[in-house]
Amino acid sequence: MPLAPPPVLPADLAAALRGRLSPGAHLADGVVSAAGPGDVVAALRLAGRYGVPVGRAAGRGLVVDVDALDEVTVSPAGWARVGGGVRWRRLAEAAARCGLATVTGPTPNERVADAVTGGGVGPLARTYGPVSDRVRAVELVTGDGVLRRVTAEDAPELFWGVRGGGHGLGVVTAVELDLLAAPTVHAGWLQWAAADAAAVLARWRTWSAALPPQAGTTLLLVRPPTGPDGVAVRFAWTGDHADGAEVLDGLRGAVPPRRDDVVVRRPGDLGTAPVPADGVESSLLLDRLPAAGADALLAAARRTTPRTVELRLLGGAVGWVPERGSALCHREARLAVRVVGGAGAEQRAATWACVEELAAGLGPDTGGREAAHGVGPSPDVLARTPTPAVRERLAALAAATDPHRVLEGAGRSGGPGVRGLG
Questions:
Q1: Domain boundaries, the chain
Q2: What is the helix, strand, coil percentage profile of the chain, to 5?
Q3: Does domain 72-182+389-401 have CATH number 3.30.465.10?
Q4: 117 CB-near residues (< 8 Å, 6+ apart)
Q5: What are the tens digits of pLDDT across the range 124-174?
């Protein structure tokens, strides 16, 4: 007779949790589905008491699911409050009904809270800065099981760390952030066949280097598991729409696309990059991309392993000094490279090796920044490899608020047991 699998959590911890959770919350397979902040408090306090880590996957500790924390409140004064489980798309819809707009994180399907802790470098960040610069307050449960309201005035050090410092400082239950007066943007995707990849990349490299802060752009080289390879470019322009069309003509006039859906849109309607949601990625930050580096990226995308290679333009307001500093590192970088492959062991290893090879070939263009590996579906890139000084400062914050180290294993790629990232 086969042995029964071991319990996901110690029986006494599971019993204690069930006795402390609110009526709307539940525990199943090591996952606490919280109905309110009090459930998150109970989960982290008991995890510390029983010495159980708050992990990222059921079976390897306790997981806290905050999807039900779905409050959305939009103030006519130009700010919003959202629960820890709210995605950008829902906030954008609520803001639009009040004549306002969101800056948005990297994708509309990402949690607002994850963009705050990851930095939030979205398609409009070159104009308006990262999401982390627009935060008014964060409410989170730290590793000691304390629900804290964190602002620049009341808790300046934790306010610094939770914005762009990754998920290791606590489980976010609510965020308050500033909105925009509802602008429209000239934005969308251009697509080409794989045969145009070299010409598109060569033109994009020189065209994007001269773009003003009103423009944001990303280039994708896609090799899917099935179907033809392809090339796509996202473009977003926050200035006068006629000017944006003229700027974009510098790319599409040189290499006419097969598909062009760049039109006037609301900021919340910018769409999602065609990157596998279950992929695992490695990434690299650059100061510039020389012609030889572009050739290396193209070769990486053409290898037999299905993958997506993304080249994202940074700079603009991303690199400006914010009014209130945060833990978000490497804001001076000009470009981000993401290589996204499958989640299998061989595919992960191939993705890792691909980025290490690119880093070695690009050499000085990396600015000495480390590559980041094994990152999950959250597409933020700047918070993955903190500088030594920022790492030490974050470690001191974690030591002060997480005495039992229940969140110590929480990585920047997935957060402290918060399910549903991306």
A1: 11-65, 72-182+389-401, 185-380
A2: 35, 25, 45
A3: yes
A4: 162, 163, 164, 165, 166, 167, 169, 172, 383, 415
A5: 999 999 999 999 999 999 999 999 999 999 999 999 999 999 888 999 999
